[in-house]
Amino acid sequence: MAGRGRLVPTLGVVAVGTVGYYLYSAGGSPKVAEKQFEHDAASASARVKGELPGRGKEAKLQGEVWAKQAGAKLDHAVDDAKATLHDTDAKLSAKMAEADAKIDHLKAEGIQKAKELRKDTDKKIDEFDTTVIRKTQEAKSGIASWFGFGK
To answer: Which of 12, 18, 29, 89 has the most neighbouring CB atoms within 10 Å?
Structure first.
């Protein structure tokens, strides 16, 4: 009876190890692991029985295993491409937001400079108008004094 007490845990460890091996070799895909297990079981069965007619089933199972592995690799590549595309899209969106902010800043700065330029221009025009009016008044008083109407 002491041997039976160790047998159950030992068989459990062997079963868990076998499942882990097939999952690891299948890249974590349970379907691929199942197909590999079926292929290996068919191979072992063919060796034990010594049957050559069983090779057709074995080849079919091997083809299914390869197809599942190729599908898993293709799915992985597609997922990687999607992730890369998503990252690139996020980076592009960030750059576009940064460019929009810079454009808004430059626009505001340009408007401010235009206002300052207009203010300076208006001030120069007002100074010119004041000078013209003053000189015109001086000229009028000078001409009027020639004819005796002025100071």
So the answer is: 29
Regarding pTM above 0.85, the answer is no
Token pair listed for 97: 């937001």
Distance in angstroms between the alpha carbons of the first and the last residue of the chain? 144
pLDDT higher than threshold 80 for residue 96: yes
- Structure-block tokens of residue 36: 């590999």
- Cα 27 from Cα 33, distance rounded (Å): 8
**C-alpha–C-alpha distance, residues 130 and 6, integer Å:** 114
- At 149, is the pLDDT very low, low, confident or very high (cuts 50, 70, 90)? low
72 by DSSP, 3-state: which?
Answer: helix
Nearest Cα neighbor of 59 from 49, 70, 46, 50 is 46
